[in-house]
Known about the structure:
The complex is a heterodimer of chains A (about 500) and B (about 220).
Chain A: H1 3-33, H2 39-57, H3 59-64, H4 74-93, H5 100-115, H6 121-156, H7 160-191, E1 203-205, E2 209-211, H8 213-229, H9 233-242, H10 248-264, H11 268-276, H12 289-302, H13 305-311, H14 314-344, E3 355-357, H15 360-368, E4 383-385, H16 387-397, H17 402-412, E5 417-418, H18 421-425, H19 429-432, H20 434-441, E6 447-448, H21 451-461, H22 475-492
Antiparallel strand pairs in A: 1-2, 3-4, 5-6
Chain B: H1 10-41, H2 45-74, H3 82-109, H4 118-144, H5 149-176, H6 181-216
Helix pairs in contact in B: 1-2, 1-3, 1-4, 2-3, 3-6, 4-5, 4-6, 5-6
Amino acid sequence: MELIILVFLSSGLFLGWSLGSNDAANIFGTAVGSRMITFTTAAIICAVFVVLGAVFGGAGAAHGLGKLGAVNAIAGSFMVALSAAVTVYGMTKLGLPVSTTQAVVGGIIGWNLFGGFLTDMTTLSKIVSTWVLCPILGALFAAALYKGTIAFLNWAKFHMVRLDAIVRIALLLTGAFGAYSLGANNIGNVMGVFVSSSPFQDVSVAGLFTLTSIQQLFLVGGLAIAVGVFYSKPVMMTVGDSILPVSPVGAWVVVMAQSIVLFIFSSNALLSFWVGLGLPAYPLIPVSSSQAVIGAVIGIGLTHGLRGARQIKWRVLANIGSGWISTPVIAAAISFFFLFFLQNVFQQQVFQEVRYQLSAPVIAHLTEEGVEMGPFDDLRDAEIVSAIAFRDALRDRAGLSDAEEETVISSAEIYPMAVSPEKLATLDARYLGSDRASAVRALEAQSFDHKWQLREALTEASGAWRAKEPSPLTKAYNKTLGDHLDYLYRHLVRPDA
Amino acid sequence: MVDILPFKRTGLLISEIDDYFDKVSEAAMIVQRTVLHYLDHGPDEELAKRVDQIRAVEDRADEVRRNIANVMYTEMLMPDTRGDVLSLLNQVDIALDNCVHLVLGLAMERPELPDLFHDGFRKMLAEVDAAAQVMVSGARAYFTEPQTVRNYVHKINFHNQEATAIGLQGGSLIFDSDLPLDRKLQLRDWLIKVRDLASTADDIGDQLAILAVKRSV
């Protein structure tokens, strides 16, 4: 085990700790705030299920690498994770619930700015739109669910003592489920970047089951989140009590509304079912549980009309809102500032330079794609370092549409890959599936300079690598295909080139 | 970790709350039976039996009430309404104490109640018992159907007003009579003691109305 890997791993563990100390509040904040569950009980249940989720539900994130996958040097990943962790830690100290994903994205933007990489504006605008959309959806779902639940309770006429027991059980079950999901979904952000350099070996546990090296890595990350959970009390009290004191039933409604919002906007299966019923499709967007929870608490307050609105502590809410805006900005600034130190003081490589070249095959490919390449003749075969410099060079010569510009930049990126016997021996065929793995093996001994070249070769080798016509029903298929391609690019890359 | 097994004492607690209200209702009925019997037969052996009976009811009710409070606090049940429930039970306990004191007082003082006033006492007892029984039903409803509590409060209020009106008539009748002043004052006090049972039920009704609104918020 390399010592340097452990040093870099520490920032992932810190991020895990920060995540636990902030996001646990989304799951158990209202339950603890309404005094239905003690903080200790909530923390223990949350910690156990976070670890279970990370180890047994986090496998999907192993190849997806989370949002940090874009960062192409481990020292850079270390700093992105550290800047996100420091930001979330600071917000936790202030008792403000923030989105860890946003902090990570802020860190990546800082890295992009430092390394001269382009920031994906589409993703960024989606994230910004969730700041507005997510609390509104949380509020709407919570208001509807609260009204429905109250109507049901009036009909069911539970004894107050029995209702207390039912709500307590419901809070524990939904909380445990939420903790499992938190572990499964966020372990990618915390540990995903270290998957390719996991310092662990597969071990068999009493001959019953095998813990893979990735599962052990996720176990360590999960434990970091679990430890963080025990420090989440200040944020829990903000969510559970400071904005609006909620009743125990309200506490359950908040957790459910948050889960529903997250489920609806992340479930391909539900969208397919929805579209299958002949109903109009809705976009699947990344949403923040922190924001859904805050929206849900407000939603319950507003079901009581003006009286409820008066009860909401708007000043606390304004603090939280300002935290959402400052989180990515602060994370980006910290990331940028410390990347400079890491590179120039500690002599670490924080990013790998990416080069762009309009070679003959690239020009032919782009012409085939319908891009008018005439104005860029003088750039032919010139190697340009950094996406921003390349984009500026393109813009100086012609006005391409955003889509065309993106196509030219991604096609010109030099990304050398080789399908060597060593790489094929370590290929994860189980993840890719037999058809796709066979197609990769058919390309043995070939090498490629651009990602699109590998993609085209794979498509020719097997129909299993062909993307389907974009539609809500094929979105899940195409997303998996994209994840498989990303895995293959990383697996086959020639770092020496 | 006590809150991991919330169902452990749920059934027991519900039956104890029901048991407590049963005892309060029983105490109100004992008062009515005791006074009616007293009007017809004066202080006889039956009165002594009733004293024992209502003391047993009070002892059991106090034990159950203490146990309810103990379980609610130690097991941290109903954190948002626990205080309200205990305050309700404490106020109902005042009504129960009034019932006990009335029967004990009757056994100690053994007042002479002339036939002229019997009718008034009977009418007032009917209203007082009705107020107490509706109050118990209202308190039970608070635990299961808080939105119906308003109906009970309205009825308690009506019975209390009736009892007050009968009390005023009875009072006038007492002071218009030829009885000596000390007898008049003693009879008036008894009239007030009986009427106060309805008045306490009315106070509990007012509290129930507020608690029910709080539960619905």
